[in-house]
Amino acid sequence: PADPSTPGALGAGAPAAASPGGPALPVEEALARLRALPERPPPPDVDARTAAALASAGLGLSGPMHTLAEAWERGQGLPADPEQAAAWFVRSADAGWPGAIEAVGVRLRRGTPPFPRDDAAALAYLDRAHAQRETAGASPKPRLATLLSARARREGRGAPADPPEAARRLEETAGRSLLHAVGRALALDRAGDPAAARDAWAGLPALAAATRESAALRRVAEDLAGGERRTAARALEDLARGHVRARTNLELAEALETLARLLAPGP
Which sign, positive or negative, has the C-alpha torsion 171, 175, 179, 184? Predict the structure, then answer.
């Protein structure tokens, strides 16, 4: 797919996004507007961490740009401002920061204001983040871009449905975290390896304890080990809704919701 971080790459006719005080914008124009959004002056009493991020972002450093985006989004160290957050996520993504590329993909997938909802543009960002993290090696964060691009190909959302590629990407999410391990167990199920799949599901509670997951996720692990996938899926959806309501971690919310849908795709 076209790289949406390049102005003009997505073309016309994409779904529209609301523009404050103006008409709806296609996704390409919405992203261009965010790139050009004037920077909001910070309050004079910002803490040292935020001041350092502001200074480094002003020099064009992609990681501090991402830090600044999260601060504006969550209201941590700066007043909550979705427009400024979105603008800094896009700028950081343009500068090549994998976490920001992933963040823009997540927000385009969800249609989180002021981003439009656009499945093709979201998948282009997620595929780019996935490719960068493959090249860069292990990431300190969950490989959400890989998980979401797998889900998109399974559902045919933003690209033609491709179950074999979806299964391959699920397998790539394997790692030392419960969410990754669930993805791997699902991939083993779909690969037709029942013995390995049984071992993977049975090992989830021990992994959850070893990686010090929350009590809620430890219960999810127990449910999955016991074959209670719909119960686990409902719990994951509840956790995702909590993160969305609190705007604490939209990436984690999307990961939880994705696993819930993969565990219980039916009505």
Answer: positive
Partners of 22 in the β-ladder: 19
Tens of pLDDT along 129-154? Answer: 888 865 554 444 446 788 888 888 88
- Gap between the Cα atoms of 254 and 116, Å rounded: 16
**pLDDT digits 0-9 by tens, 31-82:** 999 999 999 999 999 999 899 999 999 999 999 999 999 999 999 999 999 9
Phi, psi of 97 (to 5 degrees): -75, 120
Residues 6+ apart with CB under 8 A from 42: 50, 54, 78
Q: Is 219 exposed, middle or buried (0-12, 13-18, 19+ CB in 10 A)?
A: middle
Q: Alpha-carbon distance 7 to 30, whole Å?
A: 11
Q: Residue 18 has what DSSP assignment?
A: E
Q: Which two tokens stand for residue 220?
A: 């999810």
| Helix/strand number for the chain, H first, E second | 14, 2
Tokens matching residue 143: 């490989």
